Amino acid sequence: MEKKNFLFVSIDGLITDVAWQILKEGHNVKYSIENKEEREVGDGFVPKVDDWKKEVDWADVIIFDDVLGQGRKAQKLREEGKNVIGGTPYTDRLEDDRAFGQDELKKHGIPTIPSWNFTNFDEAISFVQENPDRYVIKPSGEVQISKGLLFVGEEEDGKDVVRLLEDYKKAWGKKIKAFQLQKRVPGVEVAVGAFFNGKDFIYPINVNFEHKKLFPGNIGPSTGEMGCYDEKTEVLTDKGWKFFKDLSYGDGICTLNPSDEIEYHKPTAIVSFNHHKKLLSIQNQTLDIAVTPDHNMYVCSQWSARNNKHEFNFVKARDLQNQSIIKRTGRWIGKEVENFVLPSVELGHYEGRQVVLHVAQEMKIPMNDWLAFMGIWISDGFVSEGYKVGISQKNQEKTGMIESLLQKLPFEFTKGKNEFYIYNKQVSSYLEQFGKAPEKYVPEFVKELSSEQIGTFLKWYCLGDGTIMEGGYRIFYTSSKKLADDVQELLLKIGRVGVVKERERNGEVWIKDHYARSARVQYEVHERVKKLDSWIDQRDIKEVDYDEKVYCATVKNHVMYVRRNGKPYWCGNTTMFWSGPNSLFNSTLKKFEPKLKEEKYVGYIDINCIVNSKGIYPLEWTSRFGYPTIFIQHEGMLNPIGEFMYGMSKGNSNKLKTKSGFQMGVRVVVPPFPF
Fold first, then answer.
1. Nearest to 97, CA basis, from 147, 142, 127
2. Closest among 128, 176, 122, 127 to 155, alpha carbons compared
3. Are 201 and 648 in contact (CB under 8 A)?
4. In order of start, what are the domains of the chain with their CATH numbers?
5. Is the peptide bond before 204 cis (omega within 30 degrees of 0)?
6. What is the rounded CA–CA span in Å between residue 121 and residue 169?
7. Cβ contacts of 170 within 8 Å, gap of 6 or more
8. Treating both helix axes as pointing N-terminal to C-terminal, what angle do 16-24 and 641-649 enclose, rounded to 10 degrees?
9. Which residues of the chain have pLDDT under 70?
10. Which of 4, 65, 197, 417 has a CB 3.0–4.6 Å from the CB of 60, allowing a cystine?
11. What is the rounded end-to-end Cα distance, in angstroms, of the chain?
């Protein structure tokens, strides 16, 4: 794009970084700051002007960075034919007047949280004393820019809210002309926003999770994010189960997408820090969870489950309801493969006194037959000297099944009393990589196959080292930790749940119809075929002291497969990300598209919400660029920001190009914040 002239009109110098970035892209920039106390912001970085109105004819695009009456100026210039990014009196009021913003949400059929509006502190104090509960204090108008004045009450009797209202009356009584008390609703604070070009939303949209407490004990004004796992929690990756401390950026983490499909994605951030506080421990027969109180749990409410809705949402661990459901399985879309190719090997034989070498060519074997063979061999097979491959089995019925299978395979075998033997270098050379019993593992190619083909492997593995119980579920046995972990992963990929249990064994172990010798630690993988989700009761939850590191990772889809002490479940993480239209967007911002088009609004608009197992509840509007949101977003935008802003001001519908992954920002606060 050719060089353009950008005029930035700011009240407090909030958009300095964007102006500087556009200047660095080679465009001309002029910057006006209204507040005299802030006019030094950006000095030395961007050219300044005192009277922006004199520069209107010079500008190709004019950008307003705030509400508080700026929408009226932007609308007037837009009506005069100027390319303007900025609000309207209507969109300014959505943010500035909280009561109006809530009324507009109701008018558009969007559920809201109960709230009460006040212009007098004494009346608000009396209200809380007469109606004790947890409330959120939300100032309206210009003072709401100070995020430190927003307060989330923690005490059930509302006394902390009363004390703060009394302090606000003394310190801010002349400046806070109106404010709102909103009933506190537990859940995850999540915002959804998008750019609007005067006609349509520009995709993708932006979603960011928020939890921001300044003071210890989860109290005070807002500043940043948190929520992690303890050091004994593992996460499933494309290289198997790993403790978070061993996780790397090259690992693909097992995630669950919005359609309940399993996907692997590399983390964009790995977090660890010392935690000298409480953890929440959730333990029952099916789950073992240890997370920080603010961790995002991916749960379904009892009400939703019993009404056959099964809607899963993020809820803070400390806000879990009396009974909640945690998802433990997913839908795997693997590859259906027709044949397995057994690699070629070099063979030799004697002709007289000379060794003649030749190559045994690759061997194509029907995949389902090879999976059956691998299943029974990994459970009951071995490789020994002389290229000998063996499978041991005493049960006559199973022996007959194995013999029928071997007859389908393209290599010869012999049958002993309780064993089958294959003398074949090509077969033994491939199988020897899997080691002896304590080191065995599932071939990686098996994990990539379809659920049906994975099921074939598990069926034949269970035929050897497994038991089918009366309830129809199976128990898989092994002395290999890696193999137990792999079987657990395979059960996930056929829509089941596997729980790994460790047993100390000595002597012989009875496996339904035969004994197996054991002199080492044994592992059992218990399959769940009916109760795939797990119920949490309030009695399962308790606080525990913790003085070690905690861990988490940022990953696409926000839901990853983790386990503790062999018990797996889906759980969440938090951050900002770009997305296509989703249920959060469609049930909130999307409903305002006709109204924003009518207003000819151009810019960024955002709704902050509380999401819990009961639904989505919008809290407040941001009818402008968010700060520091726009700076964090810019790190993920691939379009030159000047080109994107100019196109948006012209009403162009060019798609916003963004990096895959997530953006994270850190806010540093210093005294006297918030007072």
1. 142
2. 128
3. no
4. 5-90 (3.40.50.720), 226-328+533-574 (2.170.16.10)
5. yes
6. 6
7. none
8. 110
9. 141-148, 209-227, 321-322, 348-350, 355, 505-519, 574-579, 612-614, 660-675
10. 4
11. 45
pLDDT digits (tens, 9 = 90+) for 144-192: 554 457 787 878 899 999 999 999 999 888 888 889 898 988 777 788 9
Whose tokens are 């726009």? That residue is 630
Contact 637, 656 (CB under 8 A): yes
If residue 474 lies in a helix (H) or strand (E), which one and from where to where?
A: strand 474-478
**Dist CA 84 CA 664 (whole Å):** 29
Whole-angstrom distance, CA of residue 312 vs CA of residue 299: 5
Show Cβ contacts of residue 335 under 8 Å, excluding neighbours closer than 6 positions.
448, 449, 450
Strand 201-210 with 576-579, pairing? antiparallel
Token pair for 417:
């009393």
Amino acid at position 514, single letter: H
At 189 the pLDDT is 76
pLDDT tens digit sequence for 625-667: 877 778 878 878 889 999 999 999 999 977 788 876 566 666 6
The label of the residue with tokens 């790993």 reads 242
Rg (CA), the chain: 32
Q: Cβ distance 566 to 356 under 8 Å? A: no
Q: How far apart are CA 95 and CA 67, in angstroms?
A: 8
Residue 615 DSSP symbol:
E
Query: What is the CB neighbour count within 10 angstroms for residue 466?
Result: 23
- Which amino acid is it at 220? G
Does the bond joining 132 to the residue before it have cis omega, within 30 degrees of 0?
Answer: no
DSSP character for 479? Answer: S
- Please check whether residue 367 is in contact with residue 571, taking contact to mean a CB–CB distance below 8 angstroms: no
pLDDT digits (tens, 9 = 90+) for 351-365: 777 767 778 889 999
Strand, helix or coil at 594? Answer: helix
β-partners of residue 296 are 316
Spatial distance between the Cα atoms of 415 and 403, rounded to a whole number of angstroms: 8
SS3 446: helix
Count other C-beta atoms under 10 Å from residue 186's C-beta: 15
